[in-house]
């Protein structure tokens, strides 16, 4: 479609013959002399070229004369002859032009159509001048007048008769038709529709004028000044001036009329890529190679810029080779679509209301699109589904995930961040976006960049293909495992948003399960998961299901990126303590486990600790939230704990099963080994914070508020607080705390505070001890000189707790299993399952120990308890309970001592006569009674007599009062000289025992025997008893003989 010999003059009558030179005509002379340089006067083509680029041609007659001359020029066979001579070799190469009939004027039209393929310099120059002449008026373009006459009148696009306006106004007619064409595409039900023939003619004209902006007459006149301002050094031809002006379209100094003309042309390019000379030329071979313009597709689809971009981008993403020139052009036009929303008819059609309501006045530099993205994210209001879909389609067409520079708004907002945080990454690399996401909410991030980035990521997260790196690394896995199709193809069975979920499900499959992702794809899935954790809106499925609830419950409790800020806050901790597991490409829960284990390191900061605790609390809702626990115990849970979801309930269920199997010495544990190991980890983690044990927390909420309000939750401090004020707790809370202590005493490793405070001492004294014997080991080493004071204090606390109830001492409970019901059944009958016996059972066993009636194992354990409580009165709950007033009044100084070594007990013994309370007196007397049984339970006496025991009683085994009897015999033996302190203490004890014997008579034969053996008059008493026995024996003999004699006499009768 160019110059056509079939066009007829619209002048009335025959067209006038013109002289050889236009400068010789009176109507033209003045214009030629005034507007054209002198050297062009002798060349009519040069004069025409000069005059058609100005508007000041004199009068309608002069303009009409020029138009008539150009019409004759395009139809005169002489010019065809010149063209055949100048373009001889070119015509031979272009078969279509060689076949044109001679003398019809069609040859020049054909050469204009194929001018892009002309290589001869002279031919190219000639055809270029002829093209400029032809495109100066749409009526000179072959077929255009016939195709668009009705549309020109319908759209009221101006004059179709020469002389009514100046010849140059005819460029406005084409511009009017072009605007009508693009307006129709932007309306749902257009009132006026351009005919199909005229549409093709308009787009063909635009295509033919695509190489030289002079040929688009409307745009040329609208942008002449802007061209000089912005593109002065840009050489005309091959669409270079167009591209230059497009790049400056949103400059402040760009005139509005030029901007409007450029926008119209861009919209035509969006409808037909061939309207861009550079794009069509650069991508011609690639379009053919990848079948992006196959003949059987309707032109309206194959010519669309979006179709071309999607087709070629698909080839690039599949790893196919697309020429660098074509990729450069694609980049320019993708950027163009992102900069100006109005170039996408679907956006205008679908988002008109949203733009008017939320985004008016933000037309430039992609601001409108980002405003719409912000609306879609829910930050400024609601948006229609069609608008959201149109935006998603545009993002796929432009593919800014492949090169952040496509998104000008993002590029400008994030330039400073990229220069500082991402300077190590090549400009345009798709990893720039990932780098920006990694620095979201950090000090290097700026607010504007943050907003633009999240707005774009919102859409990228909804189509896995839009993350270029993810698609490149995972397209094989997605095709194999998720049955995906090509980059620009979709499937109803596997929509784009579901593909990532599919990849995620396969990322964590074990080798046994099979169908796993490749290593590099797993790493990318992990990267995406990390980035989506920054904002709930980057997780489409989560947002769809939870957005209403998020607004309802969390609007005032969360801020954007708060989760990520906590994650970033943990970076120093990760580098210090967890760098080995952090380097794993796929985190299988090891990193969080490491952070939990190091949550209370001094290097831990508050934000990280809060984040880790929050993660733990979330995990408690469902055991499947804990990846390692789920993978280790999934089968065990299904088999042993079906229908249980809460993590704490699952842990209790499995722990109970493990404990029962252990107690019953089962040959084979029902819980698998790998589950038992992970179960142990979960149990230990739950002990750190009372909130991780929901039942205990709920039962004690009011008590925490009343008594532990200012105590922090971490480090088991709340639990420790409740233990210390156990007697003041509400019944329900008290029961739960007792059960917790019972569990901890059975398995001291679950006692978080003990394990934390005594961590170093455990390493020193108990490195190989079994976890269940840990407290026992610590107790045995409690009085070591190198024992840490804080650990010693904590051990004492646990001993005090154990002595309140035999059930809290598993070792004693096992050793005295038979003795307790035998001797203390009356106490058991009054006992409750979940409240302490306040040491009553242990006191009962102590008395039986003094009577030497316990089994050997039980006796050994009671001896240890008596020895420990003899050194520290706090370990004897009955003594502390009944003698609290006496201790305060009589032994205050001893009780206040930092180190307890039996001072309080000795004080009470010395002041026995001053004690008025019967129950307290009884407890002190019991202590005296116990000390008779074994000197080891009387630390003051034992310390005073240690040397004498070594010298005089070394061969006597301890226990059952043997060494005490040895010392008493030594005291009576005049030949033995005891240490003065030992002698004094023994005499004191004899007096105490004498008093005790008076106020507390023996309760049994064994008690009586013990009193005799320890009495100062032992020999006298034994002599009297011996004489008495002998007298009784003699009396018995005599009575027996008399009885026999009487019986015989009776028989003899």
Automatic annotation (TrEMBL):
GO MF: fibroblast growth factor binding
PROSITE patterns: GLG1_C_RICH
InterPro entries assigned to the protein according to its UniProt record, in alphabetical order: Cys-rich_GLG1_repeat, Cys-rich_GLG1_repeat_euk, GLG1
GTP-binding among keywords: no
Membrane-protein topology: Single-pass type I membrane protein
Signal peptide coordinates: 1-28
Cellular-component GO terms for this entry: Golgi membrane
Swiss-Prot/TrEMBL keywords: Glycoprotein, Membrane, Repeat, Sialic acid, Signal, Transmembrane, Transmembrane helix
Name of protein: Golgi apparatus protein 1
Lineage top rank: taxon: Eukaryota
Locations listed in the record: Golgi outpost; Membrane
Cys-rich GLG repeats: 193-253, 321-380, 382-444, 603-662, 670-730, 786-853, 915-975
Entry's transmembrane regions: 1020-1043
Organism name: Nothoprocta perdicaria
């Amino acid at each position: 479609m160019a110059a056509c010999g079939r066009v007829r003059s619209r002048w009335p009558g025959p067209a006038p013959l013109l002289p050889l030179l236009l400068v010789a005509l009176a109507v033209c002379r003045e214009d030629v002399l005034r507007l054209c340089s002198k050297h062009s006067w002798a060349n009519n083509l040069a004069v025409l070229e000069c005059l058609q680029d100005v508007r000041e041609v004199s009068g309608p007659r002069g303009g009409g004369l020029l138009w008539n001359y150009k019409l004759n020029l395009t139809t005169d066979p002489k010019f065809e002859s010149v063209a055949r001579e100048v373009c001889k070799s070119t015509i031979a190469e272009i078969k279509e032009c060689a076949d044109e009939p001679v003398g019809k004027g069609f040859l020049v039209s054909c050469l204009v159509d194929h001018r892009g393929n002309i290589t001869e310099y002279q031919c190219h120059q000639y055809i270029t001048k002829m093209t400029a002449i032809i495109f100066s008026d749409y009526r000179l373009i072959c077929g255009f007048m016939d195709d668009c006459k009705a549309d020109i009148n319908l759209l009221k696009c101006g004059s179709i008769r020469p002389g009514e306006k100046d010849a140059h106004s005819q460029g406005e007619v084409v511009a009017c038709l072009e605007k009508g064409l693009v307006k129709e595409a932007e309306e749902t039900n257009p009132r006026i529709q351009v005919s199909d023939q005229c549409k093709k003619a308009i787009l063909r004209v635009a295509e033919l004028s695509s190489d030289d902006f002079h040929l688009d007459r409307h745009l040329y006149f609208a942008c002449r000044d802007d061209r000089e301002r912005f593109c002065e050094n840009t050489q005309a031809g091959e669409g270079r001036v167009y591209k230059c002006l497009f790049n400056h379209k949103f400059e402040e100094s760009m005139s509005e009329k030029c901007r409007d003309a450029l926008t119209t042309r861009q919209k035509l390019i969006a409808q037909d890529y061939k309207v861009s000379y550079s794009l069509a030329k650069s991508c011609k071979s690639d379009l053919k190679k990848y079948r992006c313009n196959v003949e059987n597709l309707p032109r309206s689809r194959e010519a669309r810029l979006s179709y071309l971009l999607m087709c070629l981008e698909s080839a690039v993403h599949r790893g196919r080779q697309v020429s660098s020139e074509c990729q450069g052009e694609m980049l320019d036009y993708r950027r163009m679509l992102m900069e100006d929303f109005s170039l996408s008819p679907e956006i205008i059609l679908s988002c008109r209301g949203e733009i008017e309501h939320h985004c008016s006045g933000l037309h430039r530099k992609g601001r409108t699109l980002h405003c719409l993205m912000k609306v879609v994210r829910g930050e400024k209001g609601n948006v229609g589904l069609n608008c959201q879909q149109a935006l998603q389609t545009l993002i796929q067409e432009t593919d800014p995930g492949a090169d952040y520079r496509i998104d000008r708004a993002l590029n400008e907002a994030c330039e400073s961040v990229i220069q500082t945080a991402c300077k190590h990454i090549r400009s345009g690399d798709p990893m720039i976006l990932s780098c920006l996401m990694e620095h979201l909410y950090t000090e290097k991030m700026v607010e504007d960049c943050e907003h633009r980035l999240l707005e774009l990521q919102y859409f990228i997260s909804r189509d896995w293909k839009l993350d270029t790196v993810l698609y490149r690394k995972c397209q094989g896995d997605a095709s194999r495992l998720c049955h995906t199709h090509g980059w620009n193809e979709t499937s109803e069975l596997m929509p784009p948003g579901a593909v990532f979920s599919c990849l995620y499900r396969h990322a964590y499959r074990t080798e046994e399960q099979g169908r796993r992702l490749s290593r590099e794809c797993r790493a990318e899935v992990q990267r995406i998961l990390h980035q989506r954790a920054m904002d709930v809106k980057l997780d489409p499925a989560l947002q769809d299901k939870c957005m209403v609830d998020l607004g309802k419950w969390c609007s005032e409790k969360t801020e954007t990126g708060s989760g990520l800020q906590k994650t970033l806050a943990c970076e120093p901790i990760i580098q210090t303590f967890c760098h080995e597991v952090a380097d794993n490409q796929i985190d299988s829960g090891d990193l969080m486990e490491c952070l939990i284990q190091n949550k209370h390191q001094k290097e831990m900061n508050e934000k990280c600790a809060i984040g880790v605790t929050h993660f733990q609390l979330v995990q408690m809702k469902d055991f499947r939230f804990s990846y390692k626990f789920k993978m280790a115990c999934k089968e065990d849970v299904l088999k042993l704990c079906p229908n249980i979801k809460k993590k704490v309930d699952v842990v209790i269920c499995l722990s109970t099963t493990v404990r029962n199997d252990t107690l019953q010495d089962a040959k084979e544990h029902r819980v698998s080994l790998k589950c038992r190991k992970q179960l142990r980890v979960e149990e230990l983690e739950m002990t750190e914070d009372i909130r991780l044990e929901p039942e205990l927390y709920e039962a004690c909420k009011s008590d925490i508020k009343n008594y532990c309000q200012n105590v922090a939750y971490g480090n088991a401090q709340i639990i420790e607080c409740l233990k210390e004020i156990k007697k003041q707790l509400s019944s329900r809370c008290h029961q739960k705390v007792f059960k917790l202590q019972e569990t901890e005493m059975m398995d001291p490793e679950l006692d978080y505070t003990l394990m934390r405070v005594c961590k170093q001492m455990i390493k020193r004294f108990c490195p190989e001890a079994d976890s269940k014997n840990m407290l026992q080991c610590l107790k045995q080493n409690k009085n070591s000189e190198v024992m840490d004071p804080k650990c010693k204090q904590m051990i004492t606390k646990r001993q005090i707790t154990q002595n309140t109830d035999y059930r809290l001492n598993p070792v004693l409970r096992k050793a005295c299993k038979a003795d307790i019901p035998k001797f203390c059944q009356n106490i058991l009958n009054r006992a409750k399952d979940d409240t302490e016996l306040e040491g009553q059972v242990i006191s009962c066993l102590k008395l039986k120990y003094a009577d030497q009636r316990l089994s050997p194992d039980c006796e050994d354990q009671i001896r240890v308890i008596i020895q420990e409580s003899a050194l520290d009165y706090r370990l004897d709950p009955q003594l502390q309970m009944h003698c609290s007033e006496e201790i305060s009044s009589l032994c205050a100084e001893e009780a206040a001592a930092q180190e307890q070594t039996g001072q309080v007990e000795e004080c009470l013994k010395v002041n026995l006569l001053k004690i008025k309370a019967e129950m307290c007196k009884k407890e002190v007397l019991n202590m005296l009674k116990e000390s008779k049984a074994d000197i080891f339970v009387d630390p003051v006496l034992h310390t005073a007599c240690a040397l004498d025991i070594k010298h005089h009683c070394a061969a006597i085994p301890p226990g059952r009062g043997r060494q005490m009897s040895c010392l008493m015999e030594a005291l009576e033996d005049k030949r033995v000289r005891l240490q003065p302190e030992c002698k004094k203490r023994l005499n004191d004890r004899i007096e105490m025992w004498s008093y005790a014997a008076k106020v507390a008579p023996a309760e049994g034969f064994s008690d009586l025997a013990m009193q005799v053996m320890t009495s100062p008059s032992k020999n006298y008493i034994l002599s009297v008893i011996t004489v008495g026995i002998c007298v009784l024996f003699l009396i018995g003999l005599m009575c027996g003989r008399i009885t026999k004699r009487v019986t015989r006499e009776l028989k003899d009768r």
